[in-house]
TrEMBL record:
Xref: Gene3D superfamilies: Winged helix-like DNA-binding domain superfamily/Winged helix DNA-binding domain
Annotated InterPro entries: Tscrpt_reg_Rrf2, WH-like_DNA-bd_sf, WH_DNA-bd_sf
Protein name (database record): Rrf2 family transcriptional regulator
Listed PANTHER family: HTH-TYPE TRANSCRIPTIONAL REGULATOR YWGB-RELATED, WINGED HELIX-TURN-HELIX TRANSCRIPTIONAL REGULATOR, RRF2 FAMILY
GO function term, MF aspect, one: DNA-binding transcription factor activity
Native source organism of the sequence: Methylobacterium oxalidis
Listed Pfam families: Rrf2 (PF02082)
A GO CC term attached to the entry: cytosol
Length: 148
């Protein structure tokens, strides 16, 4: 999620389309992974792509209307927590009690996190980036691409 948000903000600062290869370099991954990831974002209308010379990915949405929860959904609603039960179907009653307690805690924490993601827009992230950039005293588009 963090990497995708990073890429979306880079795209918002770009003057035109950005290739999968360039986005892969920003994310530290392979262009195929970028295309696969961006497909979910494209399906929900967050980004668009063009093929051929001069093609690439562009932002296709109003940053002030798209929340981090929207991005989470576009990514296929991945599991929020990697922690899990030692055994999904334990026979031990102690482990059943532990699993029940952990399941409740994970569910509550996930609900809170997803609610908070719904409160933050891409526009708010972009504004935060620009405020940080202004405090640093940088100007010009060349710095936004390197410092974002």
């Amino acid at each position: 999620m963090s990497g995708v948000l990073h890429v979306l903000l880079h795209m918002a600062e770009a003057d035109g389309p950005i290739t999968s290869e360039r986005l892969a370099a920003v994310m530290g991954t392979n262009p195929v992974v970028v295309r696969r990831t961006m497909a979910g974002l494209r399906d929900l209308g967050l980004v668009a792509s063009g093929k051929g010379h001069g093609g690439g990915w562009v932002i296709a949405c109003d940053l002030d209307r798209v929340t981090l929860h929207d991005v989470y959904l576009a990514l296929g609603s991945p599991a929020v927590f990697a922690m899990g039960h030692r055994s999904e179907q334990p026979e031990c009653l102690v482990e059943q009690a532990v699993n029940a307690s952990l399941a409740n805690a994970f569910r509550d924490a996930e609900n809170l996190l997803l609610s908070r993601l719904g409160e933050v827009t891409l526009g708010r992230l972009s504004a935060d980036f620009h405020a940080r950039l202004a405090r640093r005293g940088l100007c010009g588009q060349e710095h936004t691409r390197d410092d974002a």
